Amino acid sequence: KLSSLKVSTRGGANEFTVVAPRDGVIIEKSVLPGQQVATEQSLVSVADLGALWVLADLFEADAVKIAAGTPARITSPSLPEFSSEASVDCVSSVVDPERHTIGVRIRLPNPGGNIRPNMFAQVRFLSPATPNAVEVAGTALVSDGAKQYVYVEEGTGHFARRDVTAGALRDGRLTITS
Q: Which pTM was predicted?
């Protein structure tokens, strides 16, 4: 039985060493020393933390321009010195019906093991600017709660208010969509 399970005895007749089928880090353990276990149970979960998935939920309108291959910058408030660029691996085809969000998965290399599973991360998608689009500084947009607008200089010292519809903020600039 022991040879078929690929375990070796250590110490006494009731103590066995089980070797994991792959290298990694133990992320979950559901067995204690001296505990009797059935072979169907998972004793430990081992994961390779050399690369992680960053999962982001985007509102429907924000996910329109995001596709597999879109570059992204990942940072974490827990690690102020950390910043990494990766690309979108997968965009969900289904909208979450309760939150109206779309899941995005980014594969993030983690060679030093500094990033840990379930850490909070911030993701910025590095989408290119729309050709021939009008952009303004993010601080130029004014909103009264119901409408968005900017002031345009029509002559020296004379400004006119223009109602606008702004798109997403990118590198401190807003694309004016209407």
A: 0.64
Compute CA distances 175 → 97, 112, 133, whole Å. Answer: 28, 37, 7
**146, two tokens:** 């119901």
Q: Across-strand partners of 169?
A: 174
Buried b (16+ CB within 10 A) or exposed e, 158-173: eeeeeebebbeebeeb
Label residue 5 by pLDDT band (50, 70, 90).
low
Sequence-separated contacts (24+) of 20-29 with Cβ below 8 Å: 20/44, 20/46, 22/46, 22/48, 23/48, 24/48, 24/49, 25/49, 25/113, 27/117
Structure tokens at 166: 């702004």
Q: pLDDT digit string (tens) for 102-124?
A: 999 999 998 888 888 899 999 98
Please, what is the Cα angle at 158 between 153 and 159, to 5 degrees?
Answer: 50
Q: Which residues pair with 79 in a beta bridge?
A: 76
- Give the phi and the psi of residue 66 in degrees, each rounded to 5: -95, 130
The H or E element spanning position 5 is helix 2-5
CA separation for the pair 22, 46 (Å, rounded): 8
Q: Which H or E run includes 33?
A: none
CA 11 to chain centre: 46
